[in-house]
Amino acid sequence: MRRPTLVPWLVLLATLASWSLAHAPPERTEVPPCAYGDVVLDVDHLQGHALVLLDTTYRLPDTPDPSDLVRVREAGFASDHLVRAVVIDDLRALREDAEAAGLALEVQSAYRSFAYQRQVFAGWVERLGEAQARRVSARPGHSEHQLGTAIDLRTAGGPAPWDLADWARTPEGAWVVQHAHRYGFVLSYPAGEEARTCYDYEPWHFRWVGRELAAAVHDAGVPLRVWLWQHHPPQALP
C-alpha cells in the first residue's frame, strides 16, 4: 500500500502559520509616549483610587474634597496635611519603623484639591517657565495628590526635598525608597524613567495603593504608570 505523502500537510501547516502571523492582533504598546492633553477619566477615583492612572494626558475632573480626609497627625506626624483615612494605618507604620531605624520624617505635602494644584502649577511656571514646570509639576486634575493618597516626604527639620541634589541619597530618603512598598506606597517617578512616567525624578513622591498592589508593582520593576497601562488602562469619558 502506498503511503500518503506528508508534503501537502506540511504546506497546509505552513500556510496556516503564515495566516496566523499575518492576522495576529498587534502587540499592545507597553506604555504610550508622553503627550499633553486634558482627557477626563471615566472612573470612580474614590472607590477605585489605586487603579486610577493619572499622567500628562489623563486627568480627574474638578471634584469636591473627599469626605474621609484626616490630618497626618493621626499617623504621628507634626503637621496638618490631609490624606484619606485609608492611608493612615500604613503611613503610621512607615513612620514608626523609620523612627525605629533612627530616622525622622516629615510630610512635605499631601492632599491637594484641583484649585490648589492650579496655584501650585502656576507657581512653578512663574519660577521655571511653562516647559520646565510641566516636567516637575502636574497641571490641575493631573496630580496624584488630588486622589488624597499621595504624599511628599522630607527629612524632619530639613529643606524641601526638591532643593537637594537627590533626597534618596539622604539616610531618610534611601530608607523610604527601599522600604515604602512594604507599607503600600510606590515611588511614582523613579530615576531614569522620565520617558515613561512623563515627569522628572521625584524620590520624595509616594502614592499609597495598598500593600498587595505595591508589592506587585515593586516585583514587576516598572513605574506605576507602566504597570497600570499594562493591567488597567484608563477609560475616558465619552
Gist of the model:
The chain contains eight helices and eight strands. By secondary structure, it is α+β, with helices and mostly antiparallel strands.
Note the topology:
Blueprint: H1 7-23, E1 39-40, E2 58-59, E3 69-71, E4 82-84, H2 88-100, E5 105-109, H3 114-128, H4 130-136, E6 150-155, H5 171-179, E7 185-189, H6 194-197, E8 202-208, H7 211-220, H8 224-231
Parallel strand pairs: 1-2
Antiparallel strand pairs: 3-4, 5-6, 6-8, 7-8
Helix pairs in contact: 3-4
Alpha-beta content class: alpha+beta
Order of helices and strands: HEEEEHEHHEHEHEHH
Terminal-residue CA separation: 67 Å
Strand order of the largest sheet: 5-6-8-7
What's the story with the biggest beta sheet? 4 strands, antiparallel
Number of E-state strands: 8
Low-pLDDT residue spans: 1-28
Percentage of residues assigned to helices: 25-40%
> What best-fitting shape do the alpha-carbon axes yield?
globular
**How many H/I helices?**
8
Instruction: Evaluate the radius of gyration.
Output: 23 Å
Mean pLDDT: 90
Proper CATH architecture: 2-Layer Sandwich
Q: What is the CATH class designation?
A: Alpha Beta
The name CATH uses for the topology is Muramoyl-pentapeptide Carboxypeptidase, domain 2
Give the number of domains.
1
How much of the sequence lies in strands comes to 5-15%
